[in-house]
Recover the amino acids of this structure.
């Protein structure tokens, strides 16, 4: 039976069980989520998908194209250029993800609500986000320099 299932499904039976359990959990979460304001959730999801596909994807592509043009060397696809691009991409993505998650606090849109809930000032989040972003870029630059230094050393016997 296991061999037949593996031949038909292509994966072990445990994979199918875990996949079906995850679908059941997602279905339960979706049913609970849509029990409230389902029309608002549908509008928000459609708007987010359109915003992502029509605005953000061209921005990602354009920024990546500009980044490749900015670090272009003599050779079209050098390993160093790809390493530099990747060492800029990763902290940029992490910084933008943090900006997205903490935007209400960074922009101080939720200032009175945050202050009432925590008795703390929301005015510190922009500076903290900038420091975290600068730290991510500095750490990435340090890692790139370390990797270049290690690659330039002669191999030990």
């Amino acid at each position: 039976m296991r061999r037949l299932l593996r031949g038909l499904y292509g994966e072990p039976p445990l994979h199918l069980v875990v996949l079906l359990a995850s679908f059941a959990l997602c279905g339960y979460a979706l049913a609970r989520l849509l029990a409230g304001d389902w029309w608002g959730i549908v509008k928000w999801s459609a708007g987010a998908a359109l915003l992502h596909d029509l605005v953000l994807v061209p921005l990602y592509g354009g920024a990546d194209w500009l980044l490749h043009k900015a670090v272009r060397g003599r050779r079209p696809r050098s390993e160093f250029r790809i390493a530099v691009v990747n060492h800029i991409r990763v902290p940029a993505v992490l910084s933008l993800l943090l900006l997205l998650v903490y935007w209400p606090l960074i922009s101080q849109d939720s200032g009175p609500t945050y202050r009432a809930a925590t008795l703390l000032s929301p005015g510190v989040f922009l500076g903290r986000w900038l420091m975290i972003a600068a730290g991510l870029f500095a750490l990435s630059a340090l890692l790139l320099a370390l990797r270049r230094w290690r690659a330039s050393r002669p191999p030990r016997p």
